[in-house]
Specification:
Layout: H1 7-24, H2 33-49, H3 54-80, H4 84-97, H5 102-116, H6 120-128, H7 140-187, H8 199-226, H9 236-240, H10 249-259, E1 263-265, E2 269-271, H11 280-313
Antiparallel strand pairs: 1-2
Helix pairs in contact: 1-4, 2-3, 2-7, 3-7, 5-6, 5-7, 5-11, 6-7, 7-8, 7-10, 7-11, 8-10, 8-11
Length: 315
């Protein structure tokens, strides 16, 4: 796709995808391509997990599913290329399904509402839908921390990374990333079942997020400047090193620095232990930073890269 359409088409694809997200939010589950991918992974897992060599089985599983969906997408886009309008509609539909801006607010707002109502049980239940950690006993400050961590990590996983790969490789690039990220969220665990089987999925997701995670730090600080927030620190690498993850610390540490709040996942990490505890208003501000950061990324990275590729590199 990237070599066969004009720059105007690609820019319109991005803009219309953002408008679609702002108006519709997430697609209904029955129409969402990523939900279909998740169901396919769930149904096919048993066939691959039976193999004796779990490391090899995990590699074959990821490669097979990625290949199947990439081929299908390539065929759909190829068959649609006879009509610019049809290709645009399909491209917008597919690209929008790989990222989310409005959807993040939909997931986090119930947590905020429950906390404002002092309903900790409801806040914990809503939080449990978006994080892997146990939430049953979390106090308000750790609920706030987990919500902010979710927002910051989501900026990379749910927006910057898919748009990063779209800008380089088109819709198929965005989808390749989204499939890899879905694999990681489903089998990239370090438990007895997935430690070996999900190793490749976890590694692939880490590699794909490596550059976007570091770009996110610059974007977050830029967003902070636009919002006229004075960061408590500009030392993003130090904050990022607080987590064992190669990537998650960059957006989380940057949010922590810009908001001046302490972030903690019990038993795993504490980011900026000397900062104040986060509050409900910090979650709300984090959602605003997420939205600003998303659009800033499109303006200062996605569009310039697209213009560079389509105008300067492609004859």
């Amino acid at each position: 796709m990237i070599l066969e359409v004009p720059i105007v088409f690609v820019v319109f694809t991005v803009i219309l995808s953002l408008i679609t997200d702002a108006v519709l939010g997430e697609y209904p589950s029955r129409l969402h391509p990523v939900v279909l991918i998740g169901k396919s992974i769930e149904k096919l897992e048993g066939y691959f997990n039976k193999l004796k060599n779990q490391y090899l089985a995990g590699i074959l599983f990821v490669v097979a599913v990625e290949s199947i969906f990439v081929i299908i997408l390539g065929l759909i886009l190829g068959l649609s290329s006879h009509s610019t309008m049809i290709l645009l509609v399909i491209s917008v539909f597919l690209l929008k399904s790989t990222f989310s801006v409005k959807g993040m607010a939909r997931h986090v707002t119930p947590i905020i509402s429950a906390l404002k109502a002092n309903d900790l049980d409801s806040a914990r239940e809503s939080l449990a839908k978006v994080v892997r950690r146990p939430t049953a006993e979390l106090p308000p400050e750790l609920i706030c921390s987990a919500a902010i961590e979710t927002i910051s990590e989501g900026l990379v996983d749910a927006f910057i990374s898919p748009l990063f790969y779209f800008s380089l490789f088109g819709v198929i690039g965005a989808f390749f990333y989204r499939i890899a990220n879905t694999f990681d969220s489903m089998i990239g665990y370090r438990d007895s079942r997935y430690l070996k089987f999900g190793k490749f999925a976890s590694l692939l997701d880490t590699l794909l997020n490596y550059i976007p995670a570091r770009i996110s730090s610059f974007i977050i600080y830029t967003s902070s400047s636009v919002l006229r927030l004075k960061p408590a620190s500009y030392d993003a690498p130090r904050a990022a090193s607080s987590t064992a993850s190669a990537n998650a610390g960059w957006p989380m540490g940057s949010f922590s620095n810009c908001l001046g709040v302490r972030l903690e996942k019990k038993g795993e990490y504490v980011i900026n232990d000397n900062y104040r505890e986060p509050t409900i208003s910090d979650i709300e501000l984090s959602l605003k930073m997420y939205r600003y950061s998303s659009y800033i990324f499109v303006i200062i990275f996605v569009l310039p890269v697209l213009f560079f590729i389509y105008i300067l590199l492609i004859p």
